[in-house]
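Appendix B: complex inputs.
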Amino acid sequence: MNDRIVTVFGGTGFLGRRVVRHLRKHGFAVRIASRHPDRCHPLFGHDDPQLRPVQADVRDERSVANALAGAYAVVNAVSLYVEHGHETFHSVHVESAERLAVLAFRAGVKRFAHVSGIGADPSSLSLYIRKRGEGELAVRAAFADALFIRPAVMFGPDDAFLTTILKLLDQLPIYPMFGRGRMRLQPVYVEDVAEAIATALQLRITSISGATCTTQPLSGRIGRGAWTLREARSAWESPLVFIRTLRLRR
Ligand SMILES: NC(=O)c1ccc[n+]([C@@H]2O[C@H](COP(=O)([O-])OP(=O)(O)OC[C@H]3O[C@@H](n4cnc5c(N)ncnc54)[C@H](OP(=O)(O)O)[C@@H]3O)[C@@H](O)[C@H]2O)c1
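Resulting structure:
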């Protein structure tokens, strides 16, 4: 299947690099598109001829067109969590998302997977959530069959969420609960999301969903883990077991 090329925009990111690896396991050749292709070699090594780093900025039409020319599928895993200068939620999550979808459709790309975020809603009061919703609408208008992936917080060994909590638990004698512990969360293992995207591109699946829990069992589980740190670490090292525990405690 190596003639089937997938371009992963954001392929060096937390999720994107896993998507790249899972696509390779499914037999796809992958172009890893980002502004800093030099970051690919430390992440993926030099040995695999089916992995190709490509310099592309999603705000630049020419570099995007080059990166996706001849591709079978495109994954948009580009993020922006904090606005700065010209990098706004609108420019990245709406305009650039639309640019990718328009150019992919024009280039004859067969499958387009757009990574959005849970609750994406064009009428939300939150600017970020609103822009994610507007981005989805723009992508759908340009590429009607696009696959939308809306993960909640993703966890994995190098994440910014649970790793931070574990570090704080290591250092603080008391750990504060988020609100009353009733906020609903849908944490998901980053490797599961990456595998879902690769499988969806291969099998033409159009919809994927997962389970919900609240912050109380989440903190309880991690909190007890902190009390006996070994337990937290072992839960952490087997995220699938951890997720299963959350489901059982719902
Ligand atoms: N992490 C989570 O828990 C989480 C939860 C829900 C949804 N998501 C969504 O999942 C997607 C991936 O998130 P992530 O956490 O994996 O992001 P990340 O680790 O911050 O990675 C972002 C990637 O995008 C690339 N990038 C950023 N700006 C770019 C630009 N202008 N042109 C080309 N490439 C650019 C970065 O490489 P360069 O900087 O080298 O260009 C990097 O490869 C995003 O849509 C995010 O909103 C993430």
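The beta strands are 5-9, 29-34, 51-55, 73-76, 111-115, 147-149, 154-155, 184-185, 188-189, 213-214.
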